[in-house]
Specification:
Length: 222
């Protein structure tokens, strides 16, 4: 889908349901939507009906640009729920899109446009702690228009990632009951405690303990 096919009067458009799904109107959800559209076109494929497109978002926690990920999910259907989206916690507004048969492309929001966007009034409200849904509608629309009116070249660095390899965790229906609470647990999450197989909650995990599953991918040198 090209920019043109997606536009009226020469600019990009997004469906209204993007904002219904996302919850508010903001520029980064629109940015993510555009990223997904470009990635699908670059890879020469349709959206992800099942499990054949993987997205590695470089977003972390605690920065508002994460809205981008909902936009990516909306345009590609490579959703978090289906297990197609992973977070890398790099704290960058970028994402890598991997199709096992078509290759890999990475998109990064360009520094220059991020600087330009950041001067918009919308972010004055945001930095005062005002949530996007509470920002005056004309201000929110104004910053969204900046993203809709920009060219792809202004917005993104687009690069092929050669020799990208990723093996997703194989799907499994295997489950067992926790020896303590009796609740079903998918097997790879069972832990051993005093010879019993228990769930994470019953294993007595400490608050400080974190379990982060980072995707196992490799990028070959080209
Ligand atoms: Zn948002
Ligand atoms: Zn349990």
């Amino acid at each position: 889908m090209s920019n043109k096919e997606n536009s009226h009067s020469g600019r990009f458009t997004v469906p209204d349901w993007l904002f219904e799904f996302h919850g508010h109107k903001c520029p980064y959800s629109v940015m993510g939507y555009r990223m997904g559209v470009i990635a699908l076109r670059e890879l020469g494929r349709e959206k992800c009906f099942d499990h054949d497109l993987f997205v590695f978002s470089e977003m972390g926690v605690g920065h508002p640009q994460g809205c981008m990920q909902d936009g990516i999910q909306a345009s590609t259907s490579a959703t978090f729920g289906k297990g197609q989206m992973y977070k890398l916690f790099y704290g960058k507004v970028g994402a890598t899109f991997f199709d096992p048969s078509k290759g890999t492309v990475r998109l990064l929001f360009k520094n220059e446009f991020m600087d330009k966007l950041g001067t918009h009034e919308f972010f004055k409200f945001r930095k005062q702690g005002i949530e996007p849904s509470q920002v005056p509608a004309n201000v929110a629309q104004g910053v969204i228009d900046m993203v809709l009116n920009a060219t792809e070249e202004e917005l993104f660095k687009v690069e092929r990632v050669p020799n990208f390899e990723f093996k997703p965790v194989p799907g499994s229906f295997n489950k067992a009951k926790c020896d303590e609470c009796g609740e079903y647990v998918f097997e790879r999450y069972l832990r051993l405690k005093d010879g019993k197989k228990v769930c994470v909650s019953c294993s007595g995990r400490e608050g400080e303990e974190t379990t982060i599953h980072l995707p196992d991918f490799h990028v070959g040198r080209s």
